[in-house]
Specification:
Length: 807
């Protein structure tokens, strides 16, 4: 007859071994890590650092209560040694974690040590033998040879397994037993650096003032930094399965041990996912929601929003009822008008990862295509645009309402195309990551620790050498005492449109004095770009021939790759890109092939949007970069299908720009991580702007209020708060940053993947809370903005490990 109690016990133990804890052990700063398994008389290092432990007279054992292996040290010439090297010779911060039992307490019995009493170097973790003092002692020599030691106030019992952790951060020491800080009320402040030595790191070994120890080791970890109390608790909770006391055989007690008093079974771990109609839900151990992936939907041009139809669903993994444990995956297939959709969902110990793709089976005018994801999503990677409403992310592969394109009709009115042309066979994809227990990371909209970005996009109307020089230096007279103000005087740069040929009141390259100022601006870092090449742009002018003649001048003189339309008021038909410049059926005005030939990549979308959040033009809350400021649209591509990146700007008409650049407004922009491309006419020399930007005379002089505006922006830039790139510099960063992927791969640990072939200089992210941050083990520079910590790095191509440590 089968003993049902033994069967349940066996199943329970196997489940506990398969799903041992609520979170993975901490890996940040890990130097060496062993479990209780012996392989050819060696403890294999699980940290990846190859610091293996070499055994002498040690034997393998197993706890019958859990099935966990341990290493037994007899207390007489029995030991494990980690060979000395640069990584184990720790002289700064340290954490030592020993999970096991002390079978016979001995005076200064060595649990773990790298120590010499004779030399006055190293550190040790030991026990005492006094009946009333069966406690842990942590000691170390500082670099001056002074011995510091601290005794835990938590008494231990022989043969009982404990999780023992000692930490030292260069200032304060702590000793934890089973996650409890025994030094909370009496934390020793040593405030000294540790001394190193050439001895091995040893377990249970008598050497240099310590004695052998009769003990069993189930796990051991050594870190080159001080674990926080929450990290100590994390390791403790993760490893408790190793030494859970033997369970009673009463079947009611067994069920309670296995399933708890409600919620998920304990063997399932801390969370699970389940299918719900066309979506997937994630719950914690109490069955409370952690996040969800809902039914995807689409909308085509002229149609209503429509839900996809689920055509196939497969979920696999360790199952209880309708719930699947971490390590499980789900695959969902959907169909809709002219499209097939695939969603792959993976649940790990740390996150829920969604990858989805849409393949079009026929040519389609797509207005929207998205899947709602609820939870603290922190990473969006791939095609399309994501928007946030409270904590629900609309993960778009297409959103024509934001990434819109417009042309002008014969009356000059804008005709907006709120759709994308998707041809048959096109596949669009993206991914979203939901961290379940780690902080939410957000890519910053600008690099290198700047909080906001402000670019000037100056249009060329009616500027001349004197007005241009005045805006650059504060006056047109180099001998005047005020010379040295203006844009260049305050260290600012701009995207500055200029005509190639003088006409219609606008001066061009053919004016030597004017071009000389432009050349100086180029040397200072300004971006000089076309403004539809001639000032007299209007109906029928310029033509393809005219534009083709002047475009090479921008390429050869200024390496221009950006463009601003001019002369389209009233719906004029000319080579403007929003007019006929991209119409292949207009041989007189089509210039798409010329733009591509001369390396143009970016263009103003002929759109101004209202100012929001100070100076920001970003209209939506999104994850990271502002796709509504820069985007691509299939209605706006070159003849070979290459996308043209469009950008939108804002303009304060009726001479109100000065109202927007005060310190309060700039602060609001900083607080909201705003981005703005400012459309203006600061060198226009006609009566429309007379005395507004500058005053004519002998000499010309910049408006003092406007110059103070520039000074304020310059100071914000110098303080590392507001970035001042050209429009093309901003889009260059935007494109590179969009090609960086982030995944949560451990507790407070993430993987960054730079898919670019080149580094991303100053790649920046932010996290709410106070943290220190490491990339590949190296400290990153951080700065605070309100409750956020902003950090950045020069991110080389490939995969990198990023780790947060809460302060």
């Amino acid at each position: 007859m089968i003993n049902i109690s033994k069967v349940l016990l066996g199943l329970l133990l196997l489940s506990m071994l398969a799903f041992p804890g609520v979170a993975s052990p901490v890996t940040n700063g890990l130097v060496a890590s062993y479990n209780g398994n012996i392989t050819d008389n060696v403890l294999l290092d699980e940290s990846g650092n190859h610091n293996h432990g070499y055994l002498i007279n040690a034997t393998q054992g197993m706890l019958l209560s859990t099935g966990a292996n341990y290493v037994s040290f007899s207390g007489s010439n029995s030991q494990a040694n980690i060979l000395n090297n640069a990584s184990t010779n720790i002289t700064s911060e340290i954490s030592i974690e020993f999970i096991g039992s002390i079978n016979e307490f001995s005076s200064y019995g060595a649990i773990v040590s790298k120590y010499s009493d004779e030399e006055g170097t190293g550190w040790y973790l030991s026990c005492r033998s006094d009946p009333s003092l069966k406690k842990i002692v942590f000691g170390l020599y500082d670099s001056d040879g002074v011995l510091h030691h601290f005794r835990s106030d938590i008494p231990l019992v022989a043969d009982q397994v404990y999780d023992i952790v000692a930490t030292y951060d260069g200032n304060i020491a702590h000793v934890y037993v089973n996650g409890v800080d025994s030094s909370t009320d009496n934390s020793p402040i040593w405030a000294a650096s540790m001394s190193g030595n050439n001895y091995n790191t040893s377990i249970a070994y008598a050497e240099n003032g310590l004695n052998y120890l009769n003990c069993n080791m189930l796990a051991f970890r050594l870190y080159d930094r001080a674990l926080t109390s929450s990290e100590v608790q994390q390791n403790y909770q993760n490893d408790r399965w190793r030494y859970v006391p033997e369970l009673p055989l009463d079947i009611v007690d067994l069920k309670k041990k296995a399933y708890g008093d409600g919620g998920l079974p304990r063997y399932m771990g801390s969370h699970a996912m389940s299918q719900s109609g066309s979506g997937v839900n994630v719950v914690d151990s109490n069955m409370s929601s952690l996040g969800s992936v809902s039914t995807p939907y689409y909308q085509d041009n002229g149609s209503e929003e429509t839900n996809y139809v689920l055509s196939d669903f497969l979920i696999s993994g360790v199952k209880w009822k309708n719930y699947y444990a971490p390590g499980s995956s789900a695959s969902l297939s959907f169909s809709g008008n002219n499209r097939n959709r695939l969603e792959d969902i993976n649940l790990t110990n740390n996150s829920l990862h969604l990858s989805n793709s849409v393949t079009y089976t026929a040519d389609t005018l797509v207005r929207k295509d998205a899947v709602p994801v609820t939870g603290n999503a922190f990473q969006f990677y791939g095609d399309g645009l994501n928007t946030i409403s409270e904590n629900t992310v609309q993960a778009y592969t297409d959103n024509g309402e934001i990434q819109s394109d417009c042309i002008l009709d014969s009356s000059g009115a804008a005709i907006y195309n709120y759709y994308q042309n998707r041809t048959s066979g096109t596949t669009r994809s993206n991914s979203v990551e939901l961290p379940l227990f780690s902080p939410q990371l957000t890519p910053m909209p600008c690099p290198s620790g700047y909080f906001g970005s402000l670019s000037f996009a100056i249009h060329a109307d009616a500027q001349d050498p004197d007005s241009l020089k005045t805006m650059m230096y504060g006056t047109n007279d180099v001998n005047n005492s005020t010379y040295g103000k203006g844009y260049i005087g305050h260290g600012l740069i701009c995207t500055w449109a200029a005509f190639a040929a003088s006409s219609g009141g606008g001066v061009g390259f053919d004016n030597a004095s004017f071009k000389s100022v432009l050349d100086d601006m180029r040397e200072e870092g300004f971006e000089i770009i076309p403004y539809n090449v001639i000032g007299s742009a209007g109906e029928g002018n310029p033509t393809r021939e005219t534009t083709g003649y002047y475009l090479p001048l921008y390429s050869s003189s200024y390496s221009s790759k950006n463009w601003i339309d001019h002369g389209l008021n009233g719906g004029n038909r000319n080579t403007g890109l929003k007019s006929l410049g991209l119409d292949k059926n207009s041989p007189q005005y089509y210039i798409g092939d010329l733009m591509r030939e001369y390396g143009f990549q970016y263009a103003w979308a002929y759109q101004d949007v209202p100012v929001r959040n100070g100076l920001s033009t970003s209209r939506i809350q999104s994850l990271g970069l502002p796709y509504d400021v820069v985007w691509t649209n299939t209605n706006f591509t070159w003849d070979n299908g290459t996308p043209m990146y469009e950008w939108t700007s804002t303009w304060a008409p009726d001479k109100t720009a000065l109202d927007y650049f005060n310190k309060e407004t700039l602060q609001t922009m900083v607080n909201s991580y705003g981005v703005c491309f400012w459309h203006d006419y600061t060198a226009q020399n006609d009566a429309t702007f007379e005395d507004y930007y500058f005053t004519k005379g002998n000499p010309y002089s910049i408006n003092e209020t406007y110059d103070n505006l520039l000074l304020n922006i310059s100071e914000q830039n110098a303080a590392g708060r507001i970035w001042n790139p050209t429009v093309s510099q901003y889009i260059d960063y935007w494109r590179a940053a969009c090609n960086v992927e982030c995944k949560c791969t451990g507790q407070d640990t993430y993987t960054l993947i730079n898919h670019n072939s080149d580094p991303v200089p100053g790649y920046a992210m932010r996290v709410t809370g106070s943290y220190t941050v490491k990339i590949d083990g190296n400290d990153l520079t951080t700065k605070k903005n309100g409750n956020d910590t902003v950090f950045w790095m020069d991110l080389s191509p490939g995969t990198h490990s990023l780790t947060l440590v809460r302060i």
